[in-house]
């Protein structure tokens, strides 16, 4: 927890939609005149693409099913914790980019499968925004959840998450369905052990649930649209959340439990803005005061 230099951590698996949610946060930052610096979780992978391939082969040869981009040891989590701590204490820190494809390569001048050099954050930011796989990890080595001030989980039900990953990796990263399926299978062990536990650390989870059949995500021709989905929003601590206000403002929403509301999928952006704006405002106000 850091009052003066707050940290927002948005966590989700690969293809869950954390980059998509980032744009909602950016709208709030712009409207509220908040200056944010940001980290993409993939920047803290331990290996570039070629080295990762060799590591995967090594683990495969040793019959180790647990190793993948999702596992702790494939990522620089101690370094990420150091950056979170440094930012919380001083408002300074550094990050880099992992380049996935040609479009990103052109933007950053680094070839796909490599990292850009480390770069310092801009000075005088109001907050640090993390989006990625591991921003709420608590394990024997690190406690990232403890260092973040607002923790959000983006967790579509798994069929939908796989559909989104397959479509995104095929459309913009040049992989075949078979290659993505193989990656999903190899990551399952660490999905369960390293990714899922974080959703008990998060303050709010947004879980998109399709209302069309996604029973075979490997042949789905398109991603279910927002109109074909509901979103379950679960608050870890519902105290202080004005549920009557939210359900009256979000047409078609209802409470499904004492700490959860369900909204139509096409209202996710509105719901995020209504829920997150006051929380972010408070973080920034307290930070500026401190
Ligand atoms: N609410 C949504 N409605 C419809 N499509 C969505 C939604 N959220 C995400 N998607 C789609 O799912 C795909 C994956 O989303 P996104 O790139 O945001 O995932 P990600 O979590 O950032 O993945 P990674 O961490 O691997 O980069 C994209 O094609 C995106 O358009
Ligand atoms: O999105 C991801 C994890 O969040 C990618 O799978 C990861 O960054 C590795 O990419 P690639 O295998 O294409 O080098």
TrEMBL record:
Organism: Thioclava indica
UniProt-recorded Gene Ontology molecular function terms: ATP binding; phosphoribulokinase activity
Gene Ontology BP terms: carbohydrate metabolic process
EC number annotated for this UniProt entry: 2.7.1.19
Keyword field: ATP-binding, Kinase, Nucleotide-binding, Transferase
Catalytic activity from the UniProt record: D-ribulose 5-phosphate + ATP = D-ribulose 1,5-bisphosphate + ADP + H(+)
Top EC class of this enzyme: transferase
Domain Phosphoribulokinase/uridine kinase residues, every copy: 7-215
Name of the protein in its database record: Phosphoribulokinase
């Amino acid at each position: 927890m850091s009052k003066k230099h707050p940290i927002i951590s948005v966590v989700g698996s690969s293809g869950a939609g954390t980059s998509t949610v980032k744009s909602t946060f950016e709208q709030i930052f712009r409207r509220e005149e908040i200056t944010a610096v940001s980290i993409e979780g993939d920047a803290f992978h331990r290996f570039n693409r070629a080295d990762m391939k060799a590591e995967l082969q090594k683990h495969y040869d040793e019959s180790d099913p647990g190793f993948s981009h999702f596992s702790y040891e494939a990522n620089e989590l101690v370094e990420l914790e150091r950056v979170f701590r440094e930012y919380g204490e001083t408002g300074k820190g550094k990050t880099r980019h992992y380049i996935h494809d040609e479009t990103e390569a052109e933007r950053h001048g680094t070839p796909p499968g490599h990292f850009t050099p480390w770069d310092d954050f801009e000075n005088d930011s109001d907050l640090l925004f993390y989006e990625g796989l591991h921003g709420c990890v608590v394990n024997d080595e690190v406690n990232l959840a403890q260092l973040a001030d607002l923790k959000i989980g983006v967790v579509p039900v798994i069929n939908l998450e796989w559909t989104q990953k397959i479509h995104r990796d095929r459309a913009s990263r040049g992989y075949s369905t078979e290659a993505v399926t193989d990656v999903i299978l190899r990551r399952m062990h660490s999905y369960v052990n390293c990714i899922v536990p974080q959703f008990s650390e998060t303050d709010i989870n947004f879980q998109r649930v399709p209302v069309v059949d996604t029973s075979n995500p490997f042949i789905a021709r398109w991603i279910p649209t927002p109109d074909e989905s509901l979103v379950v929003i679960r608050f870890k601590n519902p105290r202080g959340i004005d549920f009557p206000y939210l359900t009256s403002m979000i047409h078609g929403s209802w409470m499904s439990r004492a700490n959860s509301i369900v909204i139509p999928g096409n209202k996710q952006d509105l719901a995020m803005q209504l829920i997150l704006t006051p929380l972010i405002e408070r973080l920034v106000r307290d930070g500026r005061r401190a």
